[in-house]
Amino acid sequence: MDPCSKAQHTALSLLARRRHSREELRRKLTARGFAHRIVLKVLSECERLQYIDDETAADFFVEELVRKRSGLLRIRDAMKARGFDQDLVDRMIDRHQLLEREPELAAAAVEKKRSALGRETDGRKRREKVVRFLRARGFRPSTISVVLEDGDP
pTM (2 decimals)? Predict the structure, then answer.
C-alpha cells in the first residue's frame, strides 16, 4: 500500500471512531510518521468529501461536554486541546449560550452529586467540597459563588 493510501486509511479509521478537528487529525497523522505533504493531501481530500468539518465537530464536542455538565473553562480548554481555533471556540460559546447557561449547568452538576455531598454533616466542609468539585469541572469562580448563594449545597 502506498503511503498516501495508508495515510487515507488511517485517517478514515480515526474518523470512524469519532469526529476530529482538522488540526487534531493533522497532529495524529503526523505523529504516526506520515510526511507533511501527504498529511496535507489527505486532509484536503477529507475536507472535500466532508469527512472533517471543524464547525460540526466543535458543535458535537460542546454538546457532549454540556451533557457531562462541564463548565466554561473546561469547555474552552478542551476545545483548544482538540485544535479548534479561538474564533470557533468563541462562536460555539455564543451559539450554546454557555455564559448564560453556566450557573444552570453548575447547579445541575451539584444536584447530581447531592447524595455524596449529603453524607457530610459539617456545612463548611460541604461547601468546600462543592467548590472543589465545581472547580474541577471547569466552572468559573463567579459561577461557583452564584451557586453557593442560591442554596444549600
Answer: 0.85
Q: What are the DSSP calls for 17-38, one per residue?
A: HS---HHHHHHHHHHTT--HHH
- C-alpha 8/C-alpha 46 separation (Å) is 8
Q: Under a CB-based contact definition with an 8 Å cutoff, are residues 150 and 107 in contact?
A: yes
Beta strand spans in the chain (E)? none
pLDDT, one tens digit per residue, over 114-144 is 877 777 778 788 889 999 999 999 999 999 9
Exposure on the CB side of residue 53, measured as CA atoms within 13 A: 8
Contact (Cβ atoms closer than 8 angstroms) between residue 59 and residue 85: no
Give me the residue label for grid cell 467548590.
131
Q: Which three cell numbers stand for residue 16?
A: 470512524
